[in-house]
Amino acid sequence: MDTAAERIEFETLLLARHLTRPRRGDGDLDASAYLLLSRIDIDGPLSVGELREAFGLDTSTLSRQTTAMLKSGLVHRIPDPAGGLARKFRITADGKRRLDAERAGNVRGLETVLEGWTTDDRDAFANLLERFNLDIERRAGRPWPRPES
Amino acid sequence: MDTAAERIEFETLLLARHLTRPRRGDGDLDASAYLLLSRIDIDGPLSVGELREAFGLDTSTLSRQTTAMLKSGLVHRIPDPAGGLARKFRITADGKRRLDAERAGNVRGLETVLEGWTTDDRDAFANLLERFNLDIERRAGRPWPRPES
DNA sequence: CACAGCAGTTGCACAATACACATTGATTGC
DNA sequence: GCAATCAATGTGTATTGTGCAACTGCTGTG
C-alpha cells in the first residue's frame, strides 16, 4: 500500500498547503492579480469571459478582480481588436514591470528551497511538474498556454 | 530566462489552482477535515494547540474545524494521556474508514491523470515532490511527518 | 422600432479565516 | 485551601474570496 500514486496524492495534499498558505503580502500583487496578469501576459488581451473560461471562476469574481486590476493600473480596457462586443484587458507597461518583479521575488524564494538541488534534479522536477499539469489540464479539458519555451 | 526555477515557479502556480479548485464535494469529507484527519491518523491524537502548530492556522479556526469533525463523528475528544490540561482528538474507527475511502477516491482520480506514466516516472515524481515539500518544510521550520515508509 | 441574446455588473449569501475577547480548568504562593 | 494566574480552548465579529441570481447595457434582427 505504498504506490507512487499514493505518495503523490499525499505530497500534493501538503504542497497545496505550502503553495496557498504563504501568500501573505509578499509583493504588491495579490494572488489573483498575479495569476490573471501572468495569463494575460502570455496570451495577450483577454475578456472577462475568456478569463472565466481559462480559470473556471465565476464571471462575477473575474469582473471584480479585473476591476481591481484596472484601478491599480495593472491593465487597461481595450475594445476587442477583432471587432467583438466584449472589452479586453491588456497588460500595461507598469503591470508588466510589477509582474516581472513579483515573479523574480518568487523565483528568489524558490531558489532558497532548491538550494541543495543539482541542475539535473531541478530540470527533472520542472519537466515532471509540467507534464503533471498538462495531464491534469488535458483531463479537465482546460489547457493552459506555456510561455514560448 | 528559462531556468528550471522559473519553470518550477510557473508550474507550481498552476498546480496550486488545480489542487485547490476541484475540491468540490468529491467525497463526504471537506478539505479541512481530510487534511486534519490525515495528520491525526499519522501522528496519533493531537490537541488544538498542536494542530495550530502543525498547520499554522489560528486556534479559533482549528477549534471550529475540530468541533465540526467531532459532530460528524470523525474524531472523539480524549484527555491528554500525558496528564496535560489540553484535550486531544483521536480518530474514530468511522473516521479512519472514511479517511481511507476519501484517499482511495483521490488516488483513483490521480491514476487517471497518471495514465500514460511509466512506473519510473511516477516514482521519480513522487521522490522529487517529497523532497520539494521537505525542503519547504525545513525552510519554514515546520516539518511534517510522513507515513511510515 | 421592439425584442432576443449575450457580456458584464451588482446585490446578496456563504465559507474559511484571523483577531480580540471570554471561558474554563489546573497550578501555585501564601 | 483559596485567590491569582496562566495555559488551552471557545465565541463574537470582521474580512476576503467566491458563487448564484437578478439586473444593465449593448448589438444585431425581424
Automatic annotation (TrEMBL), chains A, B:
<dbReference type="InterPro" id="IPR052526">
    <property type="entry name" value="HTH-type_Bedaq_tolerance"/>
</dbReference>
<protein>
    <submittedName>
        <fullName>MarR family winged helix-turn-helix transcriptional regulator</fullName>
    </submittedName>
</protein>
<dbReference type="InterPro" id="IPR036388">
    <property type="entry name" value="WH-like_DNA-bd_sf"/>
</dbReference>
<dbReference type="InterPro" id="IPR036390">
    <property type="entry name" value="WH_DNA-bd_sf"/>
</dbReference>
<feature type="domain" description="HTH marR-type">
    <location>
        <begin position="1"/>
        <end position="134"/>
    </location>
</feature>
<dbReference type="InterPro" id="IPR000835">
    <property type="entry name" value="HTH_MarR-typ"/>
</dbReference>
<dbReference type="Pfam" id="PF01047">
    <property type="entry name" value="MarR"/>
</dbReference>
